[in-house]
Amino acid sequence: MLRLVVLVSGSGTNFADLLQRTRAGRVPAEIIAVGADRECGGLETARAAGIPTFVEPFAAPREEWSMRIADRIGAFEPDLVVLSGFMRLLSPAAVARFEPAILNTHPAHLPEFPGAHGVRDALAAGVAETGASVIVVDSGVDTGPILAQQRVPVLPGDTQDALHDRIKAVERDLLADVITKIADGAIDLADHGLEHRLDRPDSQRTQQ
Protein backbone atom coordinates (compact mmCIF):
# COMPACT_ATOMS: atom_id res chain seq x y z
CA MET A 1 0.00 0.00 0.00
CA LEU A 2 1.39 3.37 -1.04
CA ARG A 3 1.86 6.15 1.49
CA LEU A 4 0.63 9.46 0.04
CA VAL A 5 1.20 13.08 0.98
CA VAL A 6 -1.33 15.34 -0.74
CA LEU A 7 -0.90 19.09 -1.29
CA VAL A 8 -3.97 21.32 -1.62
CA SER A 9 -4.77 25.03 -1.89
CA GLY A 10 -8.55 25.24 -2.03
CA SER A 11 -11.73 23.34 -1.23
CA GLY A 12 -10.03 20.00 -1.75
CA THR A 13 -12.90 18.24 -3.51
CA ASN A 14 -10.54 16.03 -5.53
CA PHE A 15 -8.60 15.20 -2.38
CA ALA A 16 -11.84 14.35 -0.56
CA ASP A 17 -12.78 11.97 -3.36
CA LEU A 18 -9.37 10.28 -3.22
CA LEU A 19 -9.62 10.00 0.55
CA GLN A 20 -13.00 8.29 0.25
CA ARG A 21 -11.65 5.82 -2.31
CA THR A 22 -8.58 4.95 -0.25
CA ARG A 23 -10.58 4.41 2.92
CA ALA A 24 -13.09 2.27 1.06
CA GLY A 25 -10.24 0.09 -0.17
CA ARG A 26 -10.80 0.99 -3.82
CA VAL A 27 -7.35 2.57 -4.15
CA PRO A 28 -4.46 0.69 -2.47
CA ALA A 29 -3.00 3.72 -0.73
CA GLU A 30 -3.12 5.61 2.55
CA ILE A 31 -3.11 9.40 2.78
CA ILE A 32 -0.67 10.00 5.62
CA ALA A 33 -0.58 13.82 5.53
CA VAL A 34 -2.09 16.82 3.77
CA GLY A 35 -0.17 20.06 3.29
CA ALA A 36 -1.07 23.48 1.96
CA ASP A 37 0.26 26.95 1.31
CA ARG A 38 -2.70 28.52 3.13
CA GLU A 39 -5.60 27.59 5.37
CA CYS A 40 -8.28 26.07 3.17
CA GLY A 41 -11.19 23.68 2.97
CA GLY A 42 -8.97 20.78 2.00
CA LEU A 43 -7.13 21.04 5.32
CA GLU A 44 -10.44 21.09 7.19
CA THR A 45 -11.47 17.87 5.45
CA ALA A 46 -8.16 16.25 6.37
CA ARG A 47 -8.38 17.31 10.01
CA ALA A 48 -11.95 16.04 10.27
CA ALA A 49 -10.67 12.68 9.00
CA GLY A 50 -7.86 12.61 11.56
CA ILE A 51 -5.09 13.08 8.99
CA PRO A 52 -2.00 15.10 10.02
CA THR A 53 -1.77 18.46 8.26
CA PHE A 54 0.79 21.19 7.76
CA VAL A 55 0.76 24.71 6.35
CA GLU A 56 3.77 26.42 4.81
CA PRO A 57 2.57 29.93 3.84
CA PHE A 58 4.13 31.16 0.62
CA ALA A 59 6.88 33.71 0.99
CA ALA A 60 9.51 34.86 -1.49
CA PRO A 61 12.00 33.76 -2.54
CA ARG A 62 10.15 30.83 -4.06
CA GLU A 63 13.22 28.59 -3.98
CA GLU A 64 13.56 28.82 -0.20
CA TRP A 65 9.83 28.37 0.38
CA SER A 66 9.83 25.34 -1.92
CA MET A 67 12.60 23.65 0.03
CA ARG A 68 10.76 24.31 3.29
CA ILE A 69 7.64 22.63 1.99
CA ALA A 70 9.77 19.81 0.57
CA ASP A 71 11.21 19.29 4.05
CA ARG A 72 7.68 19.14 5.50
CA ILE A 73 6.70 16.53 2.91
CA GLY A 74 9.87 14.52 3.37
CA ALA A 75 9.36 14.27 7.12
CA PHE A 76 6.43 11.92 6.45
CA GLU A 77 8.51 9.63 4.22
CA PRO A 78 5.84 9.19 1.54
CA ASP A 79 5.98 6.84 -1.41
CA LEU A 80 4.11 9.32 -3.59
CA VAL A 81 3.30 13.04 -3.51
CA VAL A 82 0.04 14.18 -5.10
CA LEU A 83 -0.68 17.80 -5.99
CA SER A 84 -4.46 18.12 -5.81
CA GLY A 85 -5.49 21.66 -6.68
CA PHE A 86 -2.19 22.97 -5.32
CA MET A 87 -1.80 26.39 -6.90
CA ARG A 88 1.91 27.06 -6.33
CA LEU A 89 4.83 26.07 -8.49
CA LEU A 90 7.58 24.24 -6.64
CA SER A 91 11.17 25.05 -7.53
CA PRO A 92 13.10 22.60 -9.74
CA ALA A 93 15.25 21.59 -6.75
CA ALA A 94 12.18 20.75 -4.66
CA VAL A 95 10.60 18.78 -7.51
CA ALA A 96 13.84 16.88 -8.11
CA ARG A 97 13.79 15.72 -4.50
CA PHE A 98 10.67 13.61 -5.19
CA GLU A 99 10.64 13.15 -8.96
CA PRO A 100 9.23 10.99 -10.49
CA ALA A 101 7.06 10.11 -7.47
CA ILE A 102 5.18 13.41 -7.63
CA LEU A 103 1.93 13.66 -9.59
CA ASN A 104 -0.43 16.40 -10.64
CA THR A 105 -3.84 16.49 -12.29
CA HIS A 106 -4.61 19.12 -14.90
CA PRO A 107 -7.99 20.15 -16.32
CA ALA A 108 -7.03 19.92 -19.98
CA HIS A 109 -5.82 17.37 -22.51
CA LEU A 110 -2.13 18.27 -22.32
CA PRO A 111 -0.15 19.65 -24.03
CA GLU A 112 -3.24 21.71 -24.82
CA PHE A 113 -4.04 24.59 -22.44
CA PRO A 114 -1.31 24.31 -19.80
CA GLY A 115 -1.12 26.66 -16.84
CA ALA A 116 -3.46 27.85 -14.15
CA HIS A 117 -6.46 28.63 -16.40
CA GLY A 118 -6.87 25.52 -18.53
CA VAL A 119 -10.68 25.45 -18.37
CA ARG A 120 -11.08 29.16 -19.08
CA ASP A 121 -8.58 28.99 -21.93
CA ALA A 122 -10.38 26.06 -23.55
CA LEU A 123 -13.69 27.93 -23.49
CA ALA A 124 -12.04 31.06 -24.86
CA ALA A 125 -10.54 29.04 -27.70
CA GLY A 126 -13.96 27.75 -28.71
CA VAL A 127 -12.82 24.13 -28.93
CA ALA A 128 -15.32 21.27 -29.17
CA GLU A 129 -13.55 19.22 -26.54
CA THR A 130 -10.91 19.57 -23.86
CA GLY A 131 -9.96 16.96 -21.28
CA ALA A 132 -8.16 15.92 -18.13
CA SER A 133 -4.62 14.66 -17.59
CA VAL A 134 -2.50 13.09 -14.87
CA ILE A 135 1.20 13.85 -15.19
CA VAL A 136 4.49 13.45 -13.42
CA VAL A 137 5.53 16.88 -12.16
CA ASP A 138 8.78 18.18 -13.62
CA SER A 139 10.49 21.57 -13.53
CA GLY A 140 8.22 23.06 -16.19
CA VAL A 141 4.59 24.17 -16.17
CA ASP A 142 2.47 21.09 -16.92
CA THR A 143 5.24 19.67 -19.12
CA GLY A 144 5.94 16.39 -17.30
CA PRO A 145 5.36 12.89 -18.68
CA ILE A 146 1.66 12.13 -19.20
CA LEU A 147 0.50 9.04 -17.33
CA ALA A 148 -3.19 9.15 -18.28
CA GLN A 149 -5.63 11.47 -20.00
CA GLN A 150 -9.16 11.52 -21.34
CA ARG A 151 -11.19 13.83 -23.55
CA VAL A 152 -14.16 15.79 -22.17
CA PRO A 153 -16.64 17.43 -24.57
CA VAL A 154 -17.42 21.12 -24.35
CA LEU A 155 -21.20 21.43 -24.44
CA PRO A 156 -23.21 24.28 -25.94
CA GLY A 157 -23.72 27.01 -23.35
CA ASP A 158 -21.07 25.59 -21.02
CA THR A 159 -19.92 27.90 -18.25
CA GLN A 160 -16.46 27.62 -16.78
CA ASP A 161 -17.85 26.10 -13.58
CA ALA A 162 -20.04 23.57 -15.38
CA LEU A 163 -17.23 22.42 -17.63
CA HIS A 164 -14.76 22.28 -14.75
CA ASP A 165 -17.14 20.13 -12.70
CA ARG A 166 -17.33 17.56 -15.50
CA ILE A 167 -13.56 17.63 -15.93
CA LYS A 168 -13.04 17.11 -12.18
CA ALA A 169 -15.11 13.93 -12.30
CA VAL A 170 -12.78 12.59 -14.99
CA GLU A 171 -9.67 13.80 -13.15
CA ARG A 172 -10.73 11.88 -10.03
CA ASP A 173 -11.17 8.63 -11.91
CA LEU A 174 -7.88 9.06 -13.78
CA LEU A 175 -5.94 9.84 -10.60
CA ALA A 176 -7.39 6.88 -8.73
CA ASP A 177 -6.58 4.60 -11.66
CA VAL A 178 -3.00 5.87 -11.95
CA ILE A 179 -2.29 5.47 -8.24
CA THR A 180 -3.75 1.97 -8.31
CA LYS A 181 -1.59 1.04 -11.28
CA ILE A 182 1.53 2.42 -9.59
CA ALA A 183 0.76 0.40 -6.47
CA ASP A 184 0.10 -2.74 -8.53
CA GLY A 185 3.20 -2.30 -10.68
CA ALA A 186 1.26 -1.74 -13.90
CA ILE A 187 2.82 1.73 -14.10
CA ASP A 188 6.55 1.93 -13.39
CA LEU A 189 7.48 5.58 -13.06
CA ALA A 190 11.07 4.71 -13.97
CA ASP A 191 9.83 3.86 -17.47
CA HIS A 192 9.29 7.55 -18.08
CA GLY A 193 13.00 8.30 -18.17
CA LEU A 194 13.17 9.83 -14.73
CA GLU A 195 15.95 8.62 -12.48
CA HIS A 196 15.28 10.46 -9.21
CA ARG A 197 13.67 8.70 -6.27
CA LEU A 198 12.35 9.87 -2.95
CA ASP A 199 15.31 10.52 -0.66
CA ARG A 200 14.17 7.77 1.66
CA PRO A 201 16.95 5.18 2.01
CA ASP A 202 14.65 2.48 3.37
CA SER A 203 11.91 3.08 0.81
CA GLN A 204 10.61 -0.08 -0.80
CA ARG A 205 8.38 1.32 -3.49
CA THR A 206 5.82 -1.12 -4.78
CA GLN A 207 6.38 -0.39 -8.43
CA GLN A 208 10.12 -1.12 -8.41
Automatic annotation (TrEMBL):
GO terms for molecular function: phosphoribosylglycinamide formyltransferase activity. Its EC number is 2.1.2.2. Residues 3-179 form the Formyl transferase N-terminal domain. Keywords: Purine biosynthesis, Transferase. The record marks D142 as: Raises pKa of active site His. GO terms for cellular component: cytosol. The active site is at H106 (proton donor). N(1)-(5-phospho-beta-D-ribosyl)glycinamide binds at G12, T13, N14. The keyword Transferase applies. Pathway: Purine metabolism; IMP biosynthesis via de novo pathway; N(2)-formyl-N(1)-(5-phospho-D-ribosyl)glycinamide from N(1)-(5-phospho-D-ribosyl)glycinamide (10-formyl THF route): step 1/1. Signal peptide: none annotated. (6R)-10-formyltetrahydrofolate binds at R62, M87, R88, L89, L90, N104. It catalyses: N(1)-(5-phospho-beta-D-ribosyl)glycinamide + (6R)-10-formyltetrahydrofolate = N(2)-formyl-N(1)-(5-phospho-beta-D-ribosyl)glycinamide + (6S)-5,6,7,8-tetrahydrofolate + H(+). The keyword Transferase applies. It holds the Pfam family Formyl_trans_N. Transmembrane segments: none annotated. Gene3D superfamilies: Formyl transferase, N-terminal domain (3.40.50.170). InterPro entries: Formyl_transf_N (IPR002376), Formyl_transf_N_sf (IPR036477), GART (IPR004607). One of its GO terms (biological process) is 'de novo' IMP biosynthetic process. Belongs to the GART family. Catalyzes the transfer of a formyl group from 10-formyltetrahydrofolate to 5-phospho-ribosyl-glycinamide (GAR), producing 5-phospho-ribosyl-N-formylglycinamide (FGAR) and tetrahydrofolate. This is Phosphoribosylglycinamide formyltransferase. It comes from Agrococcus baldri.
